[in-house]
């Protein structure tokens, strides 16, 4: 299956992506993780991305799209994938469709994990204490949530228009959310 996981920062996408990827034996591809690995490794890509990430802004589409195209074309995603954190705006969603058409395939489903702003803000602040991510400070969290509302939320409407959107409630226990997710995917 080819799946996109949508939802605000702090909705639990990364955690749930791991469970679903194991269940379906497909790679979970997180653009945020790839960027962080490049920042940590001091690559050119990392240097280009870091300033945007530290401010809570989106990394420009040309950089992000090229990275995703490379990753989806590298063979391990040939039999399916789960994208976490991409697409982040409608232009990226259109670009993903183009990439998949170039690979003679298409997206099966987009799952949106919903959670309200207060819930995700408190989750992100507690994650900040545990993981120490440089973009989990209060100001940057606020900006990431604004960017989500203005740029990323419209991506759901794009997939709804295509008839492939399913929404699940991201509040409650991790295991409850996983059960909703598996149900939404039909596994
Ligand atoms: P995440 O781990 O998904 O919260 O992503 C962390 C940061 O990486 C974001 O705040 C952006 O700066 C950057 N990023 C991740 N995915 C994308 C994307 N699809 N487009 C642009 N920037 C992204």
Provide structural commentary.
By secondary structure, the protein is of the alpha/beta class. The chain has a single domain (2-185), classed as P-loop containing nucleotide triphosphate hydrolases (Rossmann fold), CATH 3.40.50.300. It contains eight helices and five strands. The protein has helices at residues 13-24, 31-41, 44-55, 61-72, 90-102, 117-131, 138-162, 174-185; strands at residues 2-6, 28-30, 81-84, 109-114, 165-169. α2 (31-41) crosses α3 and α4 (61-72) packs parallel to α5. The longest helix has 25 residues, at 138-162. The termini are close together. The mean pLDDT is 96. The structure holds adenosine monophosphate (AMP).
Proportion of residues in helical segments: 55-70%
Tell me which ligands are bound.
Answer: adenosine monophosphate
CATH topology description: Rossmann fold
Q: What is the structural class? A: alpha/beta
Order of helices and strands: EHEHHHEHEHHEH
H/I helix tally: 8
Backbone shape: globular
Tell how many strands the DSSP assignment holds.
5
Rg of Cα set: 16 Å
The CATH class label is: Alpha Beta
Uncertain residue ranges: none
Main sheet: which strands, in order across? Answer: 2-3-1-4-5
Number of domains: 1
| End-to-end separation | 11 Å
